[in-house]
Amino acid sequence: MDKFRKILCIGAGYVGGPTMAVIADKCPACQITVVDVNEQRVHAWNSDELPIYEPGLKEVVERTRNKNLFFSTDIEVAVKEAGIIFVSVNTPTKTFGEGAGMAADLQYWETTARTIIEYAEDDKIVVEKSTLPVKTAEAMHKILESNTKGIHFEVLSNPEFMAEGTAVDDLRNPDRVLIGAMQTEAGQEALRRVVDIYANWVPREKIKTTNVWSSELSKLVANAMLAQRISSINSISALCEKTDADVTEVSEAVGMDSRIGSKFLRAGVGFGGSCFKKDILNLVYLCGHYGLPEVADYWEGVVKINDFQERRFVKRIVASMFNTIANKKIAVFGFAFKADTGDTREAPAIYISKMLLEERALLRVYDPEALENARKDLAGFEEMVEYADDPYVCAEGAHAILILTEWREFKTLDYPRLFESMSKPAFVFDGRNILEHKKLYDMGFNVYPLGSSDMTRV
Ligand code: UDX
Ligand code: ADP
User: Fold this and answer.
1) Which residue has its alpha carbon closest to ligand 1 atom 15?
2) 142 CA to centre of ligand 2 in angstroms
3) Which of 33, 119, 264, 349 could bridge across to 79 with cysteines, CB 3.0–4.6 Å?
4) How far does the centroid of ligand 1 lie from the alpha carbon of residue 273, in Å?
């Protein structure tokens, strides 16, 4: 087999797993191996219980696994064999040293680069898939080229734009595939090889090729701009709650302007997920580094509004529940950072729960996919937090229900039954604006939609 049909992906996480499964499905002529240092994760990918929940993913994995898609911990053999190596290891925000809380922690990336050098025996194309700060590819190129074996590594940037919960659809029908390469002959040749993989199912006009730095920066900017839209509407939701305006109506009216568009204008408890905050902080750090404090402040505002939105939500709860929630049972409906995923990284639910716990509330959490992660996120609070695998058990005896994730099933629950089982007065704080507020109010609930006036009788 042509070595460039042998593809390796290092990192079997939320990005690596689904991306490689779809490539395997769409390119039967390619042989793909996904490796990870985490043995448990690799084992799960090889089992019936995949390590991540993503609609449609199981079917794709079952179709391709052990045919042209393999999950393994044997990094050595996989590096030796592959012509193209995608790297999708985690790149969290640094928690120590220079740039702590802002810059990306590249230790996993660098370890990976050194592993590639150690085992490689011939030239390779290395593709960065993780979101990384601008100029990482250049740094990686330097590390890889420092090898003493005379091997040439061509480093490309191919950021992933899929969103969790819709990963499989996004990967099958991407708005665009972005690939950045060095403007050298070797760079352009490597670029053609990676374009050829995607061209198996993505129309050529949707495959955008750029230089490496544009590609890296575009990923940060796309995420910053998406998050900026959410912070913009969330900031307006605060104003709506003080006036007679309704943020859903405002959002719809504004979004109908075709120059603005309707997507990502849903006000809520704040954005979460592994990318938005991390990427914006990365951008902020980068701007600071290049002596652009005004630009850094501009983007930092997006994160500040997000923090404000989470705090504001908790303040409204405390204020409306007679200024104290100490020892009151609160049912948390939804812990994942968005619907259709079990992922809780940077989920607003984590911060909101912790603030409620500081107020000494007693929490009971329900989420159809994220309970396992929720337990880890709230470790240490076992005495004050319970977990329920049924929403009706979750709400029993509670003073309030908080909707923190927009799971569809929350719309169709039997609310009269929930109301009956709760302590009175019973409150609903709809942090995602997915419920029928007037109906709930008529049932007897005190209802607090996000971004419009309270509907309360006490
Ligand atoms: C994001 C980008 O969309 C994706 O292109 C990139 O590859 C990774 O980061 P993801 O974090 O998986 O994807 O989910 P996304 O759908 O963008 O949602 C992020 C957060 O914003 C969620 O917490 C979601 O609930 C929130 N959100 C989204 C809103 O609050 N309002 C909206 O209108 C849209
Ligand atoms: P993402 O959302 O970016 O995919 P994840 O944390 O879900 O992030 O996945 C990253 C994966 O990369 C993890 O499963 C982690 O174990 C793996 N990983 C980190 N460092 C290495 C390494 N040096 N070699 C192989 N896998 C690694």
Assistant:
1) 163
2) 22
3) 119
4) 7
Q: Is the bond into 425 cis (omega within 30 degrees of 0)?
A: yes
Single out the residue in 202, 233, 268 at which a domain terminates.
Answer: 202
Assess whether 162 and 299 both reside in one domain: no
The amino acid occupying position 383 is: E
Listing DSSP states for 344-366 in one string gives -TT-HHHHHHHHHHHTT-EEEEE
Please tell me the number of the ligand nearest to residue 76's CA: 2
Q: Tell whether 197 and 303 lie within a shared domain.
A: no
What is the overall mean pLDDT for the chain? 95
Residue 129 lies inside a defined structural domain of this protein? yes
| Ligand 1 atom closest to Cα of residue 263 | 33
Q: Which ligand is nearest to the CA of 346?
A: 1
Residue 134 shares a structural domain with residue 233: no
Helix (H) or strand (E) holding 290: none
Q: Is the CB of 273 under 6 A from ligand 1?
A: yes
Q: DSSP secondary structure string, 30-92?
A: -EEEEE-S-HHHHHHHTSSS-SS--TTHHHHHHHHBTTTEEEES-HHHHHHH-SEEEE----P
Distance, in Å, from the CA atom of 254 to the CA atom of 165, rounded to the nearest integer, reads 26
Total domains present in the chain: 2
Range of the domain at 107: 3-202
| CA–CA gap between residue 154 and residue 139 (Å, rounded) | 12
Cα(312)–Cα(318) distance, integer angstroms: 10
Whether 14 is in the pocket of ligand 1, judged by its Cβ within 6 Å, is no
Express each pLDDT in 214-243 by its tens digit: 999 999 999 999 999 999 999 999 999 999
Tell me how far the alpha carbon of residue 105 lies from the centroid of ligand 2, in angstroms: 13
Dist. CA 186 → ligand 2 center (Å): 28
Q: Are residues 181 and 41 in the same domain?
A: yes
Whether 34 and 133 map to the same domain: the answer is yes
Question: Distance between CA atoms of 450 and 247, rounded to whole angstroms?
Answer: 8
278 lines ligand 1 (CB under 6 A): no
Question: What is the pLDDT confidence band of residue 98, given thresholds at 50, 70 and 90?
Answer: confident
Q: What is the value of pTM for the model shown?
A: 0.95
Nearest CA-CA partner of 418 in 443, 447, 436: 443
- List active site positions: 275
The answer to the question of residue 207 being in a domain is no
Ligand at shortest distance from the CA of 51: 2
CATH code, domain carrying 10:
3.40.50.720
172, 202, 232 - which closes a domain:
202
Ligand 1 pocket residue status of 174, Cβ below 6 Å: no
